[in-house]
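Cross-posting from the modeling subforum.

Setting up a comparison between two proteins and wanted a second pair of eyes on the formatting. Protein 1 (sequence, then structure tokens):
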Amino acid sequence: MADSYHHTRDAVDDLVDTLTGRIRLTPVTPDAAQPAQTQPFRQAPQAQPAHTGFTQDLGSYAVPAAPAHTGFTQNLGQAPAEPATGSFVDNIANAINTGAISDETTRYDEMAARLTSNLEEEAGESTAHTGLLDKFRLGGFHLGGKADDETADSAAQPFDTAEIPVSRRRDYESAEDAPAVRKELDENLLHLTTACIVSGAAALVLLVLAFIAAALPAMPGVLAGETVYPAVALVLLAAAAGINWKTLLNGLQGLAKKPTPDSLTALAVVGALLQALIVLVTKGYTNEVTLLAGPAALVLCVNTVGKRMNAATVRDNFQLVSKNVDHAVAYRLKDAGALRAASQGLAQPHPSVLVSRPTQIFRGFLASSAAAGTSDKNQQQFAWAAGGCALLGFLITVIRTHNLTSAVTILASILCLAAPLAGTLLAAMPARLMQRSAAQVGAVVPGWRDIRQLGRINVIQVTARDLFPQGCVTLAGIKPIKNAPIDLAIVYAASIMAEACPTLRDVFLNMLGDRSMIAKVDDREAVYGKGYIGWVNKRRVLVGNRSLMQDYGVKLPSLEYEQHHTVNQRRMIYLAVSGKLFAMFQVAYQRDPDTAAVLDSLRHSGLSLIVDCDDFNCDTALLEAAYSLPAGAVKVLNTAEHELMNPATAWLPESDGNMLHLGSFASFVGGLEAAAGAAEGERKSAVVVTASVLISCVLGVLLTLTGGLATLPLPALVLYQAAWCVLAMIFPLFQRY
């Protein structure tokens, strides 16, 4: 690109440098500072005031000297000629009004070409750097770069919650979409149910006929003709393939395009159809020929069962997503500033933070649900391996026997042997079990793209009420100041704390007893990390920690006195009225056994916590002491960090995300555990399916060379496939979700 633009620098180059940020800053001493210059438009320039920032050297128009300044001047090259702004605007107006386009566009085309060239060069450099880093990233469920359905973080806007999914004909974007989406899901489930029934019936009939053909010396009755049984097998298998035409189409396209578990199924069906057709055309059916239509129909049927299970999972998830209740969406934080602030101080070298925001609509639910399984990425290679082994067996048989029927039978046998029954169940079964487990706590994880992203999370955001649920904070003592009435102190404190954080609200309301005694509070204000301010009976009331009182000049006991009374996870709460200390409340924090077990599990999984603290007493030292957390495993956000995180956790009417939950700690962690269980179940099943495909390919070639594949009993082939399927499904069934 550089070879195309060897020319003398001009004003266009200066403008391109300005737009692309290539501005050179030349240090200038205060004595040698040049006078500021401006570009005139319609009137003569005026003298510019002194400043300490930057000046732009954009022209040579003389102006009165400005006072010297300290800083930098901006060197943008030679001074460009004064632009003809008025004529330029007039030309645009004339072009809009008359519709005529001026021929004098060469200068603007050149400018656009240079600017595009510069941007492409910068984008290329950026891509080269990020691509190299991605090669060495290690995540929970992938190695060597990102999954195909994910985009780079740099492409996301601040607080963007998920990569742009594949577009669909209709998705859930608003409450008005719910009936149409629900209808679409029901229709899809009905179609797959019908396909399961038809495929299952065809597979059953074909297997029964195949078993009869293997057990008897000749087919009974009307099936005894040399073309009748092949014709019946061809018609039944074609009917099953016809109702599942999308599976065949996707599978064949997956050989060259996006990997899909349908590829192995499609190859098996095509091979069996080809065998039945050639046997029918050549009239080559004998009792020694084993038609593979039955096993192929069985593979197609189980493939459809897996898809129906997926459809049922999506429909049931949508029932929870579309309920008219308050939800929260968990998503991976991408804003660089908030991410840096939130994770600073944690023992995570590469933090990936999961935050939640309240919302009503879980946007893009259907697109997320349609994401490919993690194990799908290897299906294309498996299909190539199976097809290559089948072609090898076909060629060996043709060369050895010169019999087309025998060669096609070997080809179909290897394809049916290599096609796993658990092709789609591999991902459908863990997803279904995950959905049922997550639904019990009100959580929804739409699809495998979200499961993969949740697997890369190593920091989660929680609140104080998550860590100290009701009953964990108790009153340890009250000390009035200068004989202040205790009952009045309780009324003041309870009135201010009536709408405060749940961890402390119940403590003060329980002291009050009668809720009707709560006084009216005007101008209530929460000061993050410090306490609450309000006006009761025209008196300013402060309830908070030492920091809040110091901000308002309230005289307090010595720090040594406070430290003496805040041992063993106890904290001091001060009450000040009209600028004077009125009473002190001592509260004790106790660990919750269930929360402690969850935190221990999260810590062993390598997860850290950031606490958006709605309890002004909650700090890092308290959490580490209460739950025996190591240093660097938990962090309480300060005021500045809380402000940076606010946009990421603020309510939105609709939001993208990786998981929907009820906003509670149990629902949030329950969804994470269910997703982790699904990922582990699929990973173990994928190992079994991989072994079954590779072993079957090798076994098919070896049996072809020894001549044993042609005489392999059909029941043995079916039982072989069923054994691999059962072994693959054991792991998801016994996995903890």
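Protein 2 (same layout):
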Amino acid sequence: MFRAVPMVHFQAQVPSRDGPAVTRQIAAQGLLHLIDIAHGTTFTVSSDVVTRELLARFRDQARTIRAVATAIELALPDAAGALSAPEVTDFSIEYQQIAERLAPIHDAVDATSRRLSEARDSAARQRIAVEQTSRLSAAHVDLQRLGRVRFAYIRLGYVAREELASLAGLLSPAPFAIIPLDTVAPRWLTAVVAPASVKDRIDAALRVGAFEPVAVSADVAVSGLEELQQLVITAERQEREGREALTVLKREVGDVLKELAQRSELAVLLLQAQTCFATAGRFLVISGWIPEERAPELTAVIQRVTGNRAVVATDKPADLQASSTTTLKVPILYRNPLLLRPFQKLVDIYGVPSYEEIQPTAFFAASFLLMFGLMFGDVGHGLVLVSAGYFLYRYAPQFLDYAILLMEAGSASAVFGVLHGSIFGVETLLPALWLHPIHDLPQFMGVAIGLGIVLVSAGIALNVVNRWRAGERVTALLGTGGVFGGFVYWTTLALAARFFLPSNWTLPDPAIFLLLAGAVGLLLARPLIVRALGVDRTARPRTGATPRWLGALEGSVELVDAIFAYFANTISFVRVAAFAAVHAAVFIAVFALADTLARYRFGGPLSAGALVAGNVVMILLEGLTVTVQVLRLEYYEFFGRFFRGGGEQYRPLMLRPNGTQGGT
């Protein structure tokens, strides 16, 4: 829970002819997180051109299969789950076999889809012709007679009533007339009449105006409505026949398409994995990370597939010099309990921890729930959140993480509501067992600052451990964020407490002296510590000698800056008390509003409505605000003390759904 699952670097050298079979088994196991082989420990060259070309061809083939399936409305499953496709030993032969089976299906579906599209277009055109011919007939318009007019230019079209004025402005100053022929919404059938001499100007104006020309020619209009309606019936029959033909094709070739899609997309996945491999003579070199406890299992599988012709080596990260560089990161695999999984995702929003770091999820969860409960303490509101989470858990399991988070946050809110003695703001039903956010605000602020001191100190301790594990042992002991910085922070806190707290709440003089002596002792012992531990692994090499006075000045400035940063982090936790007081004050405002409404007519229902609406708004808006404030304190004041990040999630090559990694 506090450390990532131990990983080992896994490298296998297999004969090239066994590459497809080995890749398939690696994907079936779902254990190996592939890495760029160029940064491995074996001398290799990059993957061959043939693999990349085959990958491109299979990708095009998979897209074609998806397009054919879409045309017949066939839902294809994702490339996940069991490996039901036949064993692949040569991807070139596999591509050819899929192409030969796909070609007749593609041709048949393509031809049927074209006929269906043509029938749809024809039916749409005929419907428009029927509608326009009907309106022309109702307006007593004879297109053939209009076509024989010589000295006048007449255009028929559709214009919205509100566009008539702007159309007239475009036609001016040419002589014209706009004659509405009907008033059918939303666009009127309109005739634009002008002298034949200004034909070009009229056409130019109508092209930029909101004018839709009539699409029916004189020949079509003469054919009559009955003939047009018959054409519509014919086109609709052809459209139905096309859909029925596609349905028949779907029934006949659906299973074949699903098989071809799985084989093609499986090949894409395996070839994409092989682009991470490298060649060394007649061998493929496969490199990646795997959970240490599962490495023997994958080794046995590869040896079985290759007939014990593979050479497999595993190395721990500490044994690989390359693992200290940024090009070869050890991936992170969590094994947190179910109740911590939502907080793991909140941590990942901030960043992915590096492999050497302590996993902060448990610390994050405990401090998150503690601060949320302090700021949003109320039994009623907590039970509402728990109920909402339980509803998601029962009826929307896809939102399980949100359900768990709501139930845990609601439980924390209810616990502190019991301590405050508050149920939906009513403070007469339960006796207060602890502080009240408003009545005991000074004490509550002290608790908030004390919580800040605890979390900042925990951040210092975690930073010391993380630095030590990363090989930065001198920084862990002597850095401003390490043991030395902790002694300075605690000494300054103890001295400041003497000015603001009663004497019985402060540390005795010997304790303060020991803290100060610890800081001074570390400072004086710096040369011995550096000599004993050596230079930090990530320390920058010095280009020249630095004068002692300049080094002392830089150290002093850094120390003062660190002290101010520590106290800024600590004081920032006062917002915990502030938002707890706001939560209680909003209750007072809601009750005051309800009391005011109760004096009016229908005051009882109005007052009850105000109480319900006020609590709903508080739960939604204030709950969101408190969550944001808690995350801010976690990310900036707590994580900023120790979190380094820069890690990489464990994503093994696999065919299972992403939620079931092979390493879990």
